[in-house]
Amino acid sequence: MKKITSGVLTLVLSSSLVVANAQQKKEDTVRVQDIEGVVVTALGIKREKKSLGYASQEIKASALSDGTTNTGNIASQLSGKVAGLNVTTSNNFGGSSNLLIRGVKSLGGGNPLIVIDGSPVNNTYTQENNVDYGNALSDINQEDIESINVLKGAAASALYGERGLNGVIVITTKNGKGKEDGSWGVTLSSSVQVGFIDKSTFPDYQTRYGAGYSQKFGSQGANGIANANFGADASWGPKFDPNLSVYQWDAYDPTSPNYKKATPWVAAKNGPLSFFNNPTTYTNSVTLEKGQKGKNISFTYDNMMSDGLMPNSHLNKNNFSLKVNYDLTPKLHTSFYSTMTLQDTKGRSVTGYSDNTVTGFRQWWQTNVDLKEQERAYFANVNPAIASVANNYGNVSWNRKSATNGTPAYWNNPYFQAYENYSTDRRFRNFTYAQVTYDLLDNVSVTGKVSYDRSNLFAENRLAYGSVSQAFGRSGKNVSSGYDRRDVTRTETNYDLMANYKFQITDDINVSGVVGGNIRRNHLNSTYASTEGGLVVPGIYALTNSGGNVLAADEQLFTTQTNSGYVTASFDFYKMFYLDGTWRIDQSSTLPAANNVYNYPSITGSLILSEILKTKNWMNFWKLRANYAEVGGTADPYQLANYYTSAGIFGVANDPATGATAHGVGIYQSIITQSEKDLKPQRSKEFEVGTEMHFLKDRITLDLAYYKTKTIDQIITLPVSSGTGVTGKVINAGRIDNTGYEVQLGLVPIKSKDFNWNIDVNWSKNTNRVVDLYPGITNLLLNSFQGGVSLNARVGEAWGTLIGSDYVYLNGQKLIDPSTGIYQTNSNQVIGNTTPDWIGGIRNSFNYRGFSLSFLIDMRKGGDVFSTDMYYGMDTGLYKESAIGDYRDKPVVLPGVLPDGSPNNIALSQNSTGSNYGYETQPSSEFVYDGSFIKLREASIGYTLPKSVLAGTKIHDVKFSIVGRNLWIIHKNLPHADPEAMIGGGINSYGWSIGSMPTTRDVGVNVTFKF
Asked: Do 227 and 247 form a contact (C-beta atoms < 8 A)?
């Protein structure tokens, strides 16, 4: 064991870019095994980092949380910290963060497996009815986390078999430590953080023109004074003139001080930015812990209360966790861990296009509308004393149909939408495991373990009386009121039995490993139901208040089981060469009997060259590693046989003579997807080589990796001719290749008794290619976007191809249609790709006595984004780019050429025809932007009080911190939005910017007391 020297010991755990500091004091939180380079790998197995023949990267808890505000989702706090890990975080309130390791390997996307203390847990992403309910990893209490180890490649995750396709994120929880005298230790932490909108991620409106689709006012009101264009949800209207007065929407609101008054035609004083709140989050936690040899206990309670950007949005999350380790005898060891999360959320932001208030702000808006007046109108009119059909039950919208008809044309009053048409959800989550280990011999132990993961989601959506009619509920018919609810229960139970062994073959050759088995059962029970035909009584949100017959509920129920066995062998030759082999066999209940048993092998090797070449005087560590492994994935339930869903009852009637109800006939929806009874598991094969070097006593550390992955037999639904009676068929098809490079660099420029400076850099590049799909098929549709753009897997290109309309070119010039004077376009063209060229992060951390300073720069190069906001918003005249100079006041000749090659000379009048920018005249390719960004992701300043100040008190440690997140978008190419802010998780996290919430610069204050 290396002796811990005085001062500060800089630790750069190989392939980790996170630097921890250990001081020669008994209060150190860095354990001896960390100094020796011991990390937690698959199945919770602890290994010496130097012996591993594959790339992994460990992040300590301090690097996850100390330098940033609490996001409520630990996934987002991994951003920029791990080479090869791409994190995409939506701006949705309580929304999802998508994790992707080493590129997309499956045609349908895919997230890594999450494991806590060796047991898998659910990380399902849920988004329904345009509401993002987040990914389940947000239930994990970050106060429980000791470290996170990212297992990147197939060799690292092979022991998880058919679940290891997309990599594994291994979370290790803290053990109780307590005080030196054996008494209880108490830690109290409290933080408050406030968000401020980054205006570069929200529309910069033009302020020269108001409501309308042409520069003409609408109808005339009293005294010959013009009415504003109420029904037009655009700002391509008449030029503002403070000397001109018109009747605006509030002139027809009896509760308004402007009732029956004409007001100056000017840009609004309070634009949409005034609609948002400054989100505030309060987090408080208490930890009680006690520990000594052979037994320790830790209990944590954490509470988070958060108000979102949108009015009437609030999240309250309570987390309780208990961990106990106890040795019943010197040979019998037990462990127990349980965590429970209770979360209530109100007012989650709507995502996507329809009925999303922020979509209106970004695409369909009038720059003359004052939001504070809309707020006043809502609260004045929603009063039960006056709320009625006459004022749309309080929905007094800026977008009234006409002077005589106050019904909203397209958009609700934003405050009515927030306070009446809000969603609520309650989530319960419990993860528990119990483990017993018995030491049969000095070198053989047996472990039995049971883990149980349960989540319950109860979500409700409301559509209040007076709302704009919209598609709603089971039938999807347009209604102006309604209620729906979703109940989802998921469980996963794992039974594990394994034997650990370690034998010394000779004095210099050792072998160790595991032999074990696992039984996993997953269960889902989901029910969705809604009213039909609107509500009978306003304000009562219940299925029994349905205006029409309620359709049969949409129910899903399944239980699946996977049985597994595995064996590993790790050989250590002279502490210089390590050779590992693993083999796992799985049996899946979702595959046919002929194909449901399959196996996954791996072999890895690492060579410690610094021991062989005796380079320790200048290179204290040098390792070469290589591996080959296979992992895979099984089918979802109900892929082997056709199944039907209920569409209601036909022929139900009452007998007028007897009053008896005649039984009807059940109606079932047609099958549109053909099942496949001969499915096989999909497989991914990967080869990886790498090297790790430490120079000058760890003042410089470098880790390099190269990998090549081939994934085959994808389980996908391919489109087929509707003439066959179905539109799709489940099949094994497709191959995706990924090739990549990863670099991790650690530098310690200054290291002294009082001052340390550490620099941690990570960079990775992944090249992805769809090699083939199926004979005769070259494109697979993955997602469709508003604006005629789609996300695709296209043969010969990287996964994530954007297809839409593009210009027609003649000799490199855009071609003009001589009959219209606008551009000719071609549909179904490749217009971009969402795959980034590379990602990276740079972290600097400084320590001077009790002071600490750190900041993280997070970067992404490439990855195209289609902006539906710009596609529509430029046409409707919202953005400042649409009102530059005298563009709207004179005829415009679009740059381009006519079919004969001559320059375009056809002038377009702006006074009557409206915009010549946007979706009406330009192809979708015009609104595809490079998704690159450079962000100051995290920053913190902290101070730990000297022990001398605390002498004589019961306080053991006090630390104050000022932290920040997303403080500065240093560079981006996507205008008026954050290139990260997609509409959700999973497939919805790629390439589509539409109606996203603005990004906030979050600043917080943390204080921690230890007793």
From this structure: yes
The C-alpha angle with vertex 271 and arms to 269 and 273, in degrees rounded to 5, equals: 130
Banded model confidence at residue 719, pLDDT cuts 50, 70, 90: confident
CA distance 190 to 294: 31
Q: Please state the rounded mean pLDDT for residues 31-37.
A: 40
Quick count: other Cβ atoms within 10 Å of Cβ 788? 17
Is residue 806 assigned to a domain?
A: yes
Dump the DSSP string for 266-301: ---SS-GGGGS---EEEEEEEEEEEEETTEEEEEEE
Question: Strand runs (DSSP E) across 8-106, as ranges?
Answer: 8-12, 19-23, 38-40, 46-48, 56-60, 85-89, 97-101
Reading the block at residue 397, the tokens are 């919208």
Q: Which tokens hold the place of 998?
A: 């603005």
DSSP 760-822: EEEEEEEEEEEEE-BTTB-EEEEEEETTTEEEEEETTS-SSEEEEEEE-EETTEEBB-TTTSS
Strand order in the sheet with 673-674: 673-674, 728-733, 714-719
**Integer CA distances (angstroms), 837 to 111, 695, 736, 1009, in order:** 20, 30, 17, 44
Cα(492)–Cα(278) distance, integer angstroms: 38
Q: Compute, in degrees rounded to 10, the torsion defined by CA atoms 772, 775, 778, 784.
A: -100
pLDDT tens track for 568-577: 999 999 999 9
Number of domains the chain is built from: 1
- Write out pLDDT tens, residues 583-622: 999 999 999 999 999 999 999 999 999 989 988 888 999 9
Residues 6+ apart with CB under 8 A from 160: 42, 113, 115, 120, 168, 584, 631
User: 668, 646 in Cβ contact below 8 A?
Assistant: yes
Burial 295-307 (b: 16+ CB within 10 A, else e): ebbbbbbbebebb
What lies within 8 Å, CB to CB, of 278 at 6+ separation is 194, 195, 196
Count the alpha carbons within 13 Å of 29 in the hemisphere toward its beta carbon: 12
Whether 25 contacts 133, CB under 8 Å: no
Contact call for residues 59 and 938 (beta carbons, < 8 A): no
User: 């910290």: which residue's tokens?
Assistant: 81
The Cβ-side half-sphere exposure at 237, using a 13 Å CA radius, reads 29
**Mean predicted lDDT score pLDDT of the chain:** 90
Domain range enclosing 963: 765-1010
Residue 366 lies in a domain: no
| Residue 71: both structure tokens together | 């996001």
Q: For residue 218, is it within any domain?
A: no
Sign of CA pseudo-dihedral 6, 10, 14, 19: positive
Q: How far apart are CA 828 and CA 789, in angstroms?
A: 9
SS3 annotation, 749-777:
EEECCCEEEEEEEEEEEEEEEEEECECCE
**φ and ψ at residue 2, rounded to 5 degrees:** -70, 140
Nearest-angstrom CA–CA distance, 272 and 293: 60
In a domain, 1003, yes or no: yes
Residue 913: closest CA among 964, 877, 953, 950: 877
Enter the pTM of the model. Answer: 0.91
655-659, 706-710, 950-954: segment of lowest average pLDDT: 655-659
10 Å CB burial of residue 428 (0-12, 13-18, 19+) is middle
Task: Find, among 163, 158, 165, the residue nearest to 600 by Cα.
Answer: 158
Give per-residue burial for 24-47: e unless 16+ CB within 10 Å, then b.
eeeebebeeebbebbbbbbbbbeb
Q: What percent of the chain clears pLDDT 90, i.e. is strictly above it?
A: 74
CA gap 437, 482 in Å, rounded: 55
